[in-house]
Amino acid sequence: MRDEIEQALKGHRAEYIEIRWEESEGTRLQYRGRERESVGRSTARGGNVRALVKGGWGFVCFNEMKDLRGKVVEAVRQARLVGSEQSHFAPVPPIEDAVPPTINKDPIAVPLADKVRLLEEYNGIILGTPGVQSSLVTYGDGRRKVLFANSEGSFIEQGRADISLRVSATARKDGDVQQAGLSLGALGDFGAMEGLHEQVKSLAQTAADLLKAPRIPGGEYTVVLDPVLAGVFIHEAFGHLSEADHVYENERLKEIMVLGRRFGQRHFNVVDGAAVPGLRGSYKYDEEGTPATKTDLIREGVLVGRLHSRETAARMGETPTGNARALDWRFPPIVRMTNTYIEPGAATLDDLLEGIEDGVYVSNWYGGQTSMEMFTFASGESRRIRHGRIEELVRPVQLSGNLFTTLQNIDAIGNDLDMNQGGGCGKGMQVPLPVSNGSPHIRIRRCLVGGK
Amino acid sequence: MENVIRQAMKVAQAAELFCAHEVSTPVRFEANRLKSIQTREGISYALRVVVDGRVGFATATSLDDRGALVQMAVETAHFGDKADLVLPERTQDDGAAIYDPAVETVPLKDMVALGQGAIDALRRSEPELVCEAWIGKGMAEVEVLNSSGLRASYRKSFMGMSAEGTLVRGTDMLFIGDSESSCRPISDAAPLTEIIMEQLENARNMAPAPQGEVPVVFTPLGVANVLLMPLSVGFNGRNVLQGSSPLTGQQGKDVFHPSLSLRDDPTVPYSPASRPWDDEGTPSQVTALVDGGRVANFLYDIVTAAKAGTRSTGNGVRMSGGPPSPSPTAWVIEPGDTPYRQMIAGLDDGLIVEEVIGAGMGNVLGGDFAGNVLLGYRVQKGKIVGRVKDTLISGNAYQVLKNILSVGKEPRWVGGRLLTPALCCGKVSVSTRQA
């Protein structure tokens, strides 16, 4: 196959060409209430060719390798139709490497019967909780092997195994339906899905308790975010704006995102990097063959870096950071986050709560979304803070705000960094991409909370 | 494909093979310029079997290794759901028209011109807009075979277009945009750009947001962004059966305002959501969901219908490679008698909502929505006075649709999935950041 790929890359009039070929297999299991709603297995293979001519891109994706050269010709032809100026594409030395998947407890090797038994235990705990009406338990695992070759002589083979689990409980009283959930993920370690019984029990209880919980009035509050939700916050509120493809062709945005601009107070440090090992967003090379890095985005409150592909790096005169990622063979790589986190400070949770007369403690997550300037994310659980103490459960809230003011309003950062690996990130059509994000507990002043 | 069914039936009591083959050509513009052209081809096969009364499921992108596909499906069946899967023996061949050969012959240069034309038009109204556009066309062939004797296939053409503009001033960012789609060629960008230019005009000035419970006008885009998701989960027959939908036990009851009528309709000619039969071969039908405020029916696939003691409504849809599950096709909200201009003119103080970020998060199952108003305008004394920012709306779709104040007269397609007029509703809570 290597010969075929390398031959197909030769002799075209293009500035850059790459070929990707991917083979994958996976399992999916879903419970809804007492029913094992679906059990399925899948295999897939596919590939793509991407070509760059005079700043224009051609892209062809397919399921079958046959006539690979013809596909390269097609991608080059399209790129030629598009291109009308000079290409900008940062150099990366050619690399030959074979990277096996990071595996602790191989999900593919775990018998289906064991997966079924574990999920049945979790589902049983939820359904056995008084007040709970139904459950939704979704498990997925997959293993893939990706070959990457480009016209500069790189040939990289990478494997990865990814697992995700979402467990949620639904409680219902008359027309009122409440839910609580838990999302987890892991890179090649089925063990991370085991032994969650206590957490599952607690989320089921929360769903039942929420029926009695009040809504809080909307408005501005001092909020304390747990590490899970603070991780979602930094991903949504800042992470997406640090992706250079949003910025590199927009002069006004470039002014806003100029390196050296102050975004937060001096205690505020944000990092992204696939080179941070063992997490769902970890890899050795990105989908353009650039080695993974760890990138400082904010250092002491000041913007010091951003996430790049080879094209955005060249356009902005910066260095590629190895953040060009593709969901799978059906998509060209675009700039994405990997493992994104706020670095820990010195405060304890008690320090953060001290002096808050009326605030909200928000934890866990439903989801988040950003429009760059504005962001919004939903807590999985919320409790009222009164007189410096975490008090009664209230209905989950939506937090929202303006990036530029909110980051400045982070006035305390905890010492308890924790990474969350659940869910997945969406951008364009490419969702869910495995990422992780994390943070210690953080406190935000004057955060807008939606409510009754 | 016949051989797969034959091989599966050596061990299974029932088998079904579904195949979808799609070819498409998207053209993308970024930062006002043509950026890429793609050719995309994908094929997928999905095999469902019943072994000892249990359902197994497997997918592959090729039938080269039939044995492996059958083996995977049979293996999963040991752990599968016990279900009464009665596969249809025949279906209808003549549904709504969904194929227009003219789509295949639309030249690339026309697609490029369409995108450039839209961007040029938008930038004529605001030279500082940075625009993205997407124009795509394609064809899908869908085939289903089963052990009850069903052999059916159809072909669908589609073309779509979207345009978005970003206007940055200081750290203020304005996002405008819309899309359209059809099974027929799109040859004129004007209808799309006119909608976007109206958004731009409405958003030219800034206005303070109202605070508290105020009447909110959801434009067709706003209905799609905020109200569609809670309802599509609520009318899902599976959630109803599980008791996790607020609509469980509400069939025949007056849950919504009497002015609301909603149906699932995969029979509209040249609508991208139309097809002669669903992904299990059940003939397409129009399903009334809300009839004058009364809950009429829910959406079912074969397995869910059997458990609920009813018949499939032809809503078995395979989402992202999974087995069929109940899912909407195209939803149609019956227009009312209030012209949009009059709806606005009648508001003393309120908010018009077009786009909200984060609306689909939170307790969607319970009908809750909450999100930041990305594009919305303040109405005062019957006039649009400007765009609001730093504003959260929240509410519950069921309560909001019980409090409909008026239903618009002018329905419009949003994304090929929803045909709706504007809805003016009460019971929406608005929170804003105080200056």
Number of domains of chain A: 2
Note the beta-strand portion of chain A.
35-45%
Helix/sheet category of chain A: alpha+beta
Assembly state (oligomeric): heterodimer
Q: What are the low-pLDDT stretches of chain B, counting only 5+ consecutive residues below 50? A: none
Detailed description of the structure:
The complex is a heterodimer of chains A (452) and B (435). Chain A folds into two domains: 2-210, PmbA/TldD fold, CATH 3.30.2290; 219-449, no CATH class. The model of chain A has no long low-confidence stretch (mean pLDDT 95). Chain A contains nine helices and 24 strands. Chain A is globular, with a radius of gyration of 23 Å. Chain A is 20% helix and 41% strand. In chain A, a hairpin with a 2-residue loop joins β21 (425-427) and β22. Chain A has 452 residues and is of the alpha+beta class. By secondary structure, chain B is an alpha+beta fold. In chain B, 20% of the residues lie in helices and 39% in strands. Chain B is built from nine helices and 21 strands. A six-stranded antiparallel beta sheet of chain B has the order 3-2-1-4-5-6. The longest helix of chain B is centred in the first third of the chain and has 18 residues, at 108-125. At the A-B interface, β1, β2, β3, α2 and α3 of A face β2, β3, α2, β5 and β6 of B.
